[in-house]
Amino acid sequence: MRRISLVGVTMFVASIMAVFLSLLVVAEAKSEPGPPTARALEELEGVEDRVLNESPKNPYHQVVDNSSSNFEAKGYQSKQVAGSAFGKGYAVATEKAGPVSFKMKVPRTRYYSVWARWPAGGENAQAARLGIPAAGGTKWEEVDQSKDGGMWVRIGAYKMQKGQRDIRLESGGGRAVADAVMIVGDALVGKDGRTASVADPYTFAADEEDRSSYDSSGSLSKSSTTTKAGQPTGADVLRVAKRHLGTPYGHNRCRNDVQEDCSCHTKLVFKRFGQSLPDSPVYQWNMDRGYKIYGKTRLRAGDVVFHDLDRDGRLRSHFADHVSIWAGRGNIIHASTYFGRVVVSEERYLGGYWGAKRFALR
């Protein structure tokens, strides 16, 4: 009888185990979602007990760009040509640059979302600073303008006192860009201190390129996913994603602009870019499409972000785990159970960061 080598047996057993594990992963990825856990159901209730205020249907807003009479700057040079700037141009800090003021009228004391925009450019300042006139004193926020150019970036939500207020920009010693700043009286505030923005900034401040994304009824046009260059970008993904802001959260619901849960939101957004995503964060992570990213420092606008919210060490729960879209500067756009609607909020409040995926856009 031929002797069977120990190495051969070991290799055979290893191959059988590999096949078994691969089948197990596929089964987990393709299985139907089971019933939600008690914790998941609890988080879907009590929004009124968590959120301290309501967002008005037509919130106050004001936009100030570098061509406005409410803009003041010393030591900045005006630039009139920039494909991704807001309006007709922008201003760039020189060696003699002083602080910039965007003068805002705050009609009443409440929380306001603050958005800023600058043209794309890797040579832009990486440590510019925005001074927000918060009720408790100026709140300085560092802004890396070498990233997230050509789109409205959420700086945060702040309580502002009624009156004339200045949002200031300091160069931080780099090539700071002064383009446009906007405040919107839409911010929601949670009892634990987290905030969220629920209004689409492009509704209030769309330049020529932004407006071309919508038809006469205000709906996204068929060609809305392409830039002037013809190739969709992460900024284009965010334009589409922000059109869903304010849509009520609906557990295991997927009706465009009526009720959406987290995976429904990402599914609807990426459908516009030629990607057919399954309606589950587990399925979206396990599917064989998309480039996986694990480090947060590598995230770009438009990446799909996953969270292991129940912190069980595996992304396997269709109800307790979460998916969102990276919106730049630490923000995500997602259907939030906490706020009960699609919002832009800070990613850090979720915890359990698992990883992200970058999909090809068409």
TrEMBL record:
Keywords from the named record: Hydrolase, Protease, Thiol protease
Bias type Low complexity, positions: 214-227
Segments of this protein annotated with the region Disordered: 209-235
NlpC/P60 domain ranges (all copies): 231-362
Gene Ontology terms describing biological process: proteolysis
Top-level taxon of origin: Bacteria
MF GO annotations: cysteine-type peptidase activity
UniProt family annotation: Belongs to the peptidase C40 family.
Protein name, UniProt field: NlpC/P60 domain-containing protein
Species assigned in the record: Rubrobacter tropicus
